[in-house]
Design a protein that fits this description.
The chain is 62% helix and 0% strand. By secondary structure, the protein is mainly alpha-helical. The protein has 9 helices and no strands.
């Protein structure tokens, strides 16, 4: 049986080198998306177009409330350590370190946004004229960026290379659902989510590059399946 890319240093170097430029480009794009979002959010105002998107998502039927409240739990802080623990069980130490690194960088990045960049745009409960706050979603406090989205996006970047076939799309489905849930529940405006996607991409791609995680697998190379 062939060893995985992480367990075979020669395979790791060959595969990761081929993906370095791509990861670097994605990290740069993520920072650009975050930067543009931050420029708009810094004013504290919510543009009319963004309000329209918020009203559409937040106004979806109440029957979605329970599943969306469950879905958002995939973005809580404890998910990172859980991914790290599963990685250790599967004897993938680089992935475990990457999951913890993404979690810590997410915490650090939020504080940079709030205290260094001084972006304190409030949540929809304050900024939106009409809002339905569901479940235990906070109605006040800083809304930019969505920490849930930052975390799941960063984790998606480091987990995806270890999956194969159609399983590779699962982390990104999680990202999409958590992003939708945070707006639907009234916890964030759409731009908070977009900024989170950008920042999470920068963190995830950057960690994958720094730790030289395996790149996209060829069909014949083994990966972690279900």
């Amino acid at each position: 049986m062939r060893k995985s890319a992480e367990r075979d240093p020669r395979l790791l170097n060959r595969v990761v080198t081929a993906g370095d430029a791509r990861r670097l480009a994605w990290a740069g794009l993520g920072l650009a998306v975050f930067g543009l979002s931050a420029l708009v959010a810094r004013s504290g105002e919510v543009p009319e177009a963004e309000q329209a998107v918020f009203r559409w998502v937040n106004g979806l039927p109440n029957v979605l409330s329970a599943p969306m409240q469950i879905t958002q739990l995939l973005g809580i802080l404890g998910v990172g350590p859980i991914v790290a623990a599963v990685a250790l069980i599967l004897r993938l130490p680089r992935l475990a370190v990457a999951a913890l690194a993404v979690t810590l960088l997410k915490l650090a990045a939020e504080r940079v946004v709030w205290y260094v960049l001084d972006i304190s745009r409030a949540r929809p409960g304050v900024t939106e004229p009409v809002v339905v706050v569901r479940g235990n979603a906070p109605a006040t406090g800083a809304g930019f960026v969505s920490g849930h989205v930052v975390l799941v996006t960063g984790l998606a970047w480091i987990v995806t290379p270890y999956l194969r076939g159609r399983w590779r799309i699962v982390p990104w489905i999680v990202v999409a659902l958590v992003s939708l849930a945070r707006v639907y529940l009234g916890a964030h405006n759409p731009l908070d989510v977009v900024g989170g996607l950008g920042l999470g991409t920068a963190i995830g791609a950057g960690v994958a590059l720094a730790l030289r995680l395996p790149g996209p697998r060829k069909r014949r190379e083994p990966g972690v399946g279900a």
